[in-house]
Design a protein that fits this description.
- InterPro entries: CDC123 (IPR009772).
- It comes from Wallemia ichthyophaga (strain EXF-994 / CBS 113033).
- This is Cell division cycle protein.
- Belongs to the CDC123 family.
- With about 270 residues, this protein is of the alpha+beta class.
- Among the domains are: about 80 residues, no CATH class; about 100 residues, D-amino Acid Aminotransferase, Chain A, domain 1 (2-Layer Sandwich).
- Helix content is about 30%, strand content about 15%.
- The protein has a five-stranded mixed beta sheet, sandwiched between helices.
- A hairpin with a 5-residue loop joins strand 5 and strand 6.
Length: about 270
């Protein structure tokens, strides 16, 4: 963690060499100023939010009210690390090389009803599918008139505010519809496997790109196999060594491998 954070001092009196913490005073001051202005913020790098590391935040969200929380979420996120390592565009169409300018955005946090958030998939600058963002069954979404109204609201918003202004022709965009039927832009995501396709598959989206119409999908029964039953990104709350040690092994093989890793770390 950067030196500007309020870290707990290590009282270990061992002779191990102390690693000097990095320091980013200008960035840290800007983060503090933004938090002071908005109260609660959500951090995002160019294409990624640290949603996979929300488990480390006491609120189990990516909402931050302190400098420490911002840095802690960013440092603990596999999504952020992957983007910095160049993985953000791995499944995208090849194009001319570009120099990436890294930007950290701090978006003002607003309370939203998860059942009113939707993901829009755009390919070749055309909507190919829309579905609910939160994978739970909601009774009010079963009404066909409600679905038609939501679909029209989202399509109109996209036509009026996004289609001719966004720089890419292929992306996924999350929107929220409030109680007054106002559509609010939430986030953009790359059109690639690293972006959750939710109620679609990317193969299905490719087929839909050949059609003039696009579907509006919702969870239509509590028994739907796609309905959310566990915690998002639960694997990110498990130590990486533990995940790697368990790959392709039964219980006894995993236990032996794990014991060997522990013994090796003790000897190091």
């Amino acid at each position: 963690m950067p030196a500007e954070c309020n870290q707990v001092e290590d009282n270990d009196d061992s002779d191990e060499e102390q690693v000097e913490s990095p320091t980013f005073p200008e960035i840290s001051n800007e983060i503090r100023a933004t938090i002071e202005k908005y109260g609660t913020v959500i951090p995002k790098l160019n294409w990624s939010t640290p949603i996979d590391s929300r488990w480390i935040n006491p609120t189990n969200t990516i909402s931050c009210t302190t400098l420490d929380e911002v840095y802690m979420l960013l440092k603990s996120s596999d999504f952020i690390a992957g983007e910095l390592a160049g993985q953000a565009f791995e499944e995208c169409v090849d194009g001319p090389p570009i120099e990436i300018e890294w930007e950290l955005a701090l978006k003002q946090h607003i309370e939203i009803s998860r059942n009113q958030e939707f993901r829009v998939f755009v390919r070749d600058n055309r909507i190919v599918g829309i579905c609910q963002r939160d994978l739970n069954f909601y009774d009010f979404l079963q009404d066909t008139q409600t679905q038609d109204q939501l679909k029209k609201l989202i399509e109109k918003f996209w036509l009026d505010h996004i289609r001719d202004t966004f720089s890419s022709n292929n992306y996924a965009v999350d929107v929220y519809i409030n109680q007054h039927d106002r559509v609010i832009l939430v986030d953009f995501n790359v059109y690639a496997l690293r972006t959750d396709s939710l109620l679609f598959s990317y193969e299905e989206l490719s087929e839909l790109a050949q059609s003039d119409a696009f579907p509006f999908k919702v969870i239509d029964t509590p028994a739907d196999p796609l309905a959310q039953t566990g915690s998002y990104y639960a694997s990110s709350a498990v130590p990486k060594d533990l995940i790697e040690a368990s790959q392709g092994k039964n219980a006894m093989e995993f236990q032996q491998t794990w014991n060997e890793l522990i013994d090796s770390s003790r000897k190091a």
